Amino acid sequence: MVSGLLRTGRGSDLASLTTTATRQGDHYVIHGHKIWTSYSDVADWCLLLARTDKDAPRHRGISAFIISMHQPGIEQRPLRMINGVTTEFGQVLFDGATVPASQMIGAPGEGWALAMTVVGHEREPSTLGYSARYGKLVRQLAGRVHGDAPEELAWAAVQTEMLRLHVRRRLSEQLDGVSHGPEGSLDKLLMTWVEQSVGHAALAVGGADDPDLLSAYLYSRAQSVMGGTAQIQKNIIAGRILGLTE
Ligand SMILES: Cc1cc2nc3c(=O)[nH]c(=O)nc-3n(C[C@H](O)[C@H](O)[C@H](O)COP(=O)(O)OP(=O)(O)OC[C@H]3O[C@@H](n4cnc5c(N)ncnc54)[C@H](O)[C@@H]3O)c2cc1C
């Protein structure tokens, strides 16, 4: 299994990432760390972004590698989430891990472009199957309600249907060869709002006593952070779609 993209050593400000990959013969040697790495506990490989040229402009000094997780110099530390789960995430520390130069993806300095392509896809709901998951949970919640449904559930049902239709439109556009680029940020914001509405509905129907529904609510809070925070998506929409500048 390949873990998520490792934006090592930085969060929102990816261009200033601090993890380094230093060329030594036909290998690169990695030093740095990354917290919140999805599935690092089960990954055999991960996609690593690291700085290969500290003198280049920030965006141009980053390269991408596919690196084995099974080697000395890599430590995976589990993290405990608020819902009690200790798998699924970890902090990954690199202390002299190596990767063959042949496992660089693209050319030196092309890591930024690759990362932007990856997050562009990551932010589109159409490719992630989230919409179906939200719809399934809303139907399950509706099945548990006897009498009047709470307002939160009605709102979640409306939003879920809206996202389903939006995803269908996006898929049609993709079939027509349309590439979305920064519009993925609109999708990510939409997806976040819907997941958090569904999370509120789960809490309204199950209360804090139902562990599965409480977990659905708690997990929904992470959606506005993972894959780039809601504030960063708004910055992208303002700057790259609406053309607003400071
Ligand atoms: C469930 C989950 C899974 C994740 N999986 C992965 C993974 O697989 N791989 C990976 O590399 N990372 C992963 N992450 C990390 C995620 O990408 C980062 O948490 C995220 O990009 C935010 O970075 P940060 O946590 O360092 O927060 P920061 O960047 O420190 O941001 C803190 C706060 O400041 C705000 N902020 C920061 N800069 C600006 C700005 N310029 N304008 C306005 N507001 C700003 C942010 O919106 C946020 O509210 C995951 C995170 C979560 C929660």
UniProtKB/TrEMBL annotation:
The yes or no answer to whether the keyword Transferase is present is no
Boundaries of each Acyl-CoA dehydrogenase/oxidase C-terminal domain copy?
109-241
Q: Per its UniProt record, what Gene3D superfamilies does this chain match?
A: Butyryl-CoA Dehydrogenase, subunit A, domain 2, Butyryl-CoA Dehydrogenase, subunit A, domain 3
Q: GO cellular component terms?
A: plasma membrane
Cofactors required: FAD
EC id: 1.3.99.-
Uppermost EC category? oxidoreductase
In its UniProt record, a GO molecular function of this protein is:
oxidoreductase activity, acting on the CH-CH group of donors
The UniProt entry, under InterPro entries, shows:
Acyl-CoA_Oxase/DH_mid-dom, Acyl-CoA_Oxase/DH_mid-dom_sf, AcylCo_DH-like_C, AcylCo_DH/oxidase_C, AcylCoA_DH/oxidase_NM_dom_sf, Mycobact_Acyl-CoA_DH
Superkingdom: Bacteria
Looking at the record, the residues that make up the Acyl-CoA oxidase/dehydrogenase middle domain are 9-95
Keywords, alphabetical: FAD, Flavoprotein, Oxidoreductase
**Family designation:** Belongs to the acyl-CoA dehydrogenase family.
- Name of the protein: Acyl-CoA dehydrogenase FadE17
Name the lineage.
Bacteria, Bacillati, Actinomycetota, Actinomycetes, Mycobacteriales
